[in-house]
Amino acid sequence: MEEKAYKIAVIPGDGTGPEVIREGIKVLEAVGRKFNIKFNFTFFDWGGERYLKTGETIPEGGIEELKKHDAIYLGAIGHPQVKPGILEKEILLRIRFELDQYINLRPVKLYPGVWTPIKDKGPEDIDFVVVRENTEGLYAGGGGFLRKGTPYEVAIQESINTRYGVERCIRFAFEYCRKRNKKKKVTLVGKTNVLTYAWDLWYRVFEEVGKEYPDIEKDYAHVDAVCMWFIKNPEWFDVIVTDNMFGDIITDLGAIIQGGMGIAAGGNINPNGVSMFEPIGGSAPKYTGKNVINPLAAICAGMMMLEWLGEESSAKAIEKAVIKVCRDHLKSLSAGKMGYTTSEVGDLVAKYV
Amino acid sequence: MEEKAYKIAVIPGDGTGPEVIREGIKVLEAVGRKFNIKFNFTFFDWGGERYLKTGETIPEGGIEELKKHDAIYLGAIGHPQVKPGILEKEILLRIRFELDQYINLRPVKLYPGVWTPIKDKGPEDIDFVVVRENTEGLYAGGGGFLRKGTPYEVAIQESINTRYGVERCIRFAFEYCRKRNKKKKVTLVGKTNVLTYAWDLWYRVFEEVGKEYPDIEKDYAHVDAVCMWFIKNPEWFDVIVTDNMFGDIITDLGAIIQGGMGIAAGGNINPNGVSMFEPIGGSAPKYTGKNVINPLAAICAGMMMLEWLGEESSAKAIEKAVIKVCRDHLKSLSAGKMGYTTSEVGDLVAKYV
Ligand SMILES: CC(C)[C@H](C(=O)O)[C@@H](O)C(=O)O
Ligand SMILES: CC(C)[C@H](C(=O)O)[C@@H](O)C(=O)O
């Protein structure tokens, strides 16, 4: 068997990011030994600490460096001593935007043995994927202040939606649904009855592109109703497609029903470029450095990365090992309540792959 | 005891609206007999049916008519044969905006005996209030299209936030929290790390106004995280304040944990003008005319209306009767599964008040 090699850019980032990425790498290397895959990791120290020391978020040429890799593996961005928005916009969102990672892919899957906070639902009910647009909408940064600091201040925030951006996102959702080959249903989640510009465009494109996929059922739901259905009827969903802001909200709700931040991972995908994979839990300052955070989300992000690189057998091996650890070992997926340390969980998964 | 009289404008509206409002009025009249309150109801036939027949949403002078009343009692707005946005914007949102009902007040309270879809939480855990800004943000209607219908189309949707609008909303939340006198905590829910114009204003005003309320704890959380906490830790909340769009989303999630659309009610409040009370479940076309929809949400909207009119004893009497019906009678709060018809549920509540 020929050895394959991948160049992976690693951004451990802030808070518990480095701890979980360490375990993710441990598992990737274990699976790599088994499947004859070599990973060449390049580390980037971008994040709050560096910013506080140097004032720099991404150094000059940083984005170009990332482009030389096959994928990016990210821990977490966000630091309690840095004003909200700076690191998020100048690191995380900048990478998403400049590498044109126009899809945020979030599988919501309850593994057997994992505790969900909702009643009467099991792994057979909770298995869907959210396709979130990742490069425009309210995240585009449009807007500004008028008369800032006065009693007459106005603050505007703009959601920018382009035919180009919406279409490629919706098309991705239909293609993904076809490949996934489960319920064969795509649900557009929006707010057509109030946001009558943005969602008129989304709805028109959904109907138009949808015609090219006669084998796939199409559905539309308002974002407020969908939040209820995630809790009462998660089994209704297969593939969901939505904009950046609504996607941000509903994927966190999705995370909680699949067991929480301890397990939820996502991919920032550019199908023709460099994609980035991350646990979605954030930097969790309160658990930092204690070796108690759950690394499974980062491990699952690594699994998604392998899948995306085309390494399906090794991805499957990680998924099986994660399921085994959830079912046979962990008392809970929450930080500090697992019954194991962060490193022990990483060791277990590495042992089982 | 002197008789009090109130002029109530009633808009039964679409779908199941008329059925639930009928029961709400039954209960109001029953409680009125007991507490010597007279209601003079004026009915307005605004909604989808009228629009389809006449092309008219609110007839000329309609808003002025509403202003002559002490309160407005609304069933539901939304019709499957009318393009999304027309009735919502030209009736519901127009009333909210033109009567300057700048607060959307949504108590999230789990009554004893009511089934919640989340595990390990009871009435002692689920008891908070969402104060949603109701006259600006993404609901202001700002935005437009560029090159509509072409491959180069851009659709913009604007969130407009004013110091004036944000401040009065935040101030209302603090005042309400003080009067409520429970956990004495106000949580601002936003997205400061991405929507850095709108939420910078909100956050600054929250800090500034908050200083006037040293007796009240202040907290901030991102909207995505809050969706998780509603499910995992609803007991953390007391009063939540947020913008129009986020409020729309999180209050539906709140509705589901308090038992669903069968029970959830809200008030559109103008503290110095005419306020409007409504069940938040929508027009539910699929149950229309079947006498199976749950009228408790409309009944609770009537209760909120009484409370707001200063009729606290009669409001309390309705609440007690609702709790009794939930605990001793209904099999479920869902339409068609109550074990009683819509009218029977109204009869029961009317009997117990
Ligand atoms: C950290 C933050 C900027 C980010 C977002 O809002 O996209 C996060 O919540 C996510 O979902 O990846
Ligand atoms: C019907 C719709 C326009 C409305 C809204 O979005 O405000 C509803 O969802 C609500 O929450 O009252």
From TrEMBL, chains A, B:
Q: Which InterPro entries does this entry report, sorted A to Z?
A: ICDH/IPMDH, IsoCit/isopropylmalate_DH_CS, IsoPropMal-DH-like_dom
Q: What is its EC number?
A: 1.1.1.85
Single GO MF annotation: 3-isopropylmalate dehydrogenase activity
Record's PANTHER family?
D-MALATE DEHYDROGENASE [DECARBOXYLATING]
Q: How does it assemble?
A: Homodimer.
Matching entries from SUPFAM superfamilies are given as:
Isocitrate/Isopropylmalate dehydrogenase-like (SSF53659)
Q: Which domain of life is it from?
A: Bacteria
UniProt GO BP: L-leucine biosynthetic process
Can you name this protein?
A: 3-isopropylmalate dehydrogenase
- Report domain Isopropylmalate dehydrogenase-like positions: 7-349
Family assignment from sequence similarity: Belongs to the isocitrate and isopropylmalate dehydrogenases family. LeuB type 1 subfamily.
Q: Does the keyword Metal-binding apply?
A: yes
Pfam families under this entry? Iso_dh
Requisite cofactors: Mg(2+); Mn(2+)
Keywords of the record: Amino-acid biosynthesis, Branched-chain amino acid biosynthesis, Leucine biosynthesis, Magnesium, Manganese, Metal-binding, NAD, Oxidoreductase
Q: Does the keyword Magnesium apply?
A: yes
